[in-house]
Amino acid sequence: MLKPFEVHVQAEPLTHFESELDAAAWSVLQEEAAKARALMAGLAFWNVSSTAQGGGVAEMVPRLVAYARGAGVDARWLVLSGTPEFFHITKRLHHALHGSSGDGSPLGAAEHARYDEVLRDNLEELLVLVRPGDVVLLHDPQTAGLAPALAAAGARVAWRCHVGRDTPNAEVARAWEFLAPGLTAARLTVFSRAAYVPPQCADRALVIQPSIDIFAVKNRPLSPEVARAILARTGLLRGTPDAPEPVFTRSDGVPARVSRGADIVRLGAEPEPDSPLVVQVSRWDPLKDPAGVLNGFALLLRQSPDLRAELVLAGPAVTSVADDPEAAATLQDVISLWRQQPHFVRRRVHLACLPMSDLEENAAIVNALQRHAAVVVQKSLQEGFGLTITEAMWKGRPVVASAVGGLQDQVVHGVNGLLVRDPGDPAEFASTVRSLLENPERAAQLGTRAQEHVRAHFTAARHLADFVRLIERLDTRG
């Protein structure tokens, strides 16, 4: 019998934000918190998702839950259990919502029956926990089929889709047809971009952009020396004799040390500490296009052999993300492509699977890698939003992103980063990255503006206010 499990999240005080907001914004946040307490008095706000780790939703939800609890709202987080077949079907849906056929497997009646069977098992536990009047926010395709039973039990149900495509095609239509029976019961639907809203949800859709927690381990300040020490301990950089300890501070305030290394495919030695790194951190997903990044960087090296730069493609350990069954195959495809490259390319490309046993240790490694990078890239073919770029921008790094999905809502070309208009063009990618490597002064200016843009638009303080708006709309529709 499959059943969901609860991830217990400690409350975080909203006072964290007082030093980051001006007086007016801090006053507004306090007013929104008071409004949320009144709206949710005696009720719970449940978030339901499909995995407790792996980036994106799995990182955003617990931080928002922590601040909601800190504001006095009984916010909770449940994670579904599923079978390999279930997660294969939902990954196929994930691709379809991006307009891609994925592995081409069907999304017919048989697949829907298996999808529903897994959700029925999870519902037995959910219906014990969720009470009439509670708010339930379901995240992504894995959870959509839960909506009818939860709504029938008296919960106020909203469904949030974190992915989408600006220009729908037959695959997008196929995904919406599959999800339609569940979504009819959702009072509201939530999307990261207006362009992702399908016609059947237009009358009950909210646009809420994702955010990062600037106080999380992944986004806290790190000195350059400590960042280099963490990367050296992980195997991503050559160490130096005078390096400090590879330490970071956990979310509970306890100091800790990075102890685990990454699994790295490389030819030769680690990069020197002063070698400029081009970095992409993402899941091993074909839509993140790690193979395209490798091809574009190889072209950059062929065109500019004297340019001193190395590429790090980093992602989570492939067995660590339950709802992503394609990770291992995608990584193997990238390794095969790497092996086909000439020697001078292979010795300047590093493929890293980062340890995931300790999620805060993993966050510290990603933090160090992004802060040390000369350029952070996200060359996705399709992208729901792209929080890895948000994280890099917060750290003041110059970024290069594809002009797709939510990436183009964050990066203003030539103002706070650079966009690649055609993500399938390795020459455009190569020339865009080269322009930053060859002009560090411009790169630094873009990075400074990037941090201020994130501070103004993509932090948890703004996101919490959007959740209050969601609760108010659920009350109105009720």
Report on this model:
It is a single chain. This protein is an alpha/beta fold. The chain folds into two domains: 5-211 and 459-477, Glycogen Phosphorylase B (Rossmann fold), CATH 3.40.50; 224-457, Rossmann fold. It is 42% helix and 15% strand. It has a seven-stranded mixed sheet with strand order 1-3-2-4-5-6-7. Strands 10-13-12-11-14-15-16 form a seven-stranded mixed sheet, sandwiched between helices. The protein has a two-stranded antiparallel ribbon with strand order 8-9. Helix 3 (84-97) packs across helix 6 (170-183).
Key descriptive features of the protein:
alpha/beta; 478 residues; seven-stranded mixed β-sheet; 2 domains; single chain; Rossmann fold; globular
What is the strand arrangement across the widest sheet?
1-3-2-4-5-6-7
**Euclidean distance between termini CA atoms:** 33 Å
Q: Would you give the CATH topology of the largest domain?
A: Rossmann fold
Task: Round the mean pLDDT to the nearest integer and report it.
Answer: 96
Low-confidence stretches: none
Q: How would you classify the helix and strand content by structural class?
A: alpha/beta
Q: What proportion of the residues is helical, as a percent range?
A: 40-55%
Write the SSE topology.
Layout: E1 5-6, H1 23-39, E2 44-49, H2 57-70, E3 74-79, H3 84-97, H4 109-129, E4 135-139, H5 147-152, E5 156-161, H6 170-183, E6 188-191, E7 205-207, H7 224-234, E8 247-249, E9 255-257, E10 263-265, E11 277-281, H8 290-303, E12 310-316, H9 327-339, H10 343-346, E13 349-354, H11 359-372, E14 375-378, H12 387-394, E15 399-402, H13 407-410, E16 418-420, H14 426-437, H15 440-457, H16 460-477
Parallel strand pairs: 2-3, 2-4, 4-5, 5-6, 6-7, 11-12, 11-14, 12-13, 14-15, 15-16
Antiparallel strand pairs: 1-3, 8-9, 10-13
Helix pairs in contact: 1-16, 3-4, 3-6, 7-11, 8-9, 8-14, 12-15
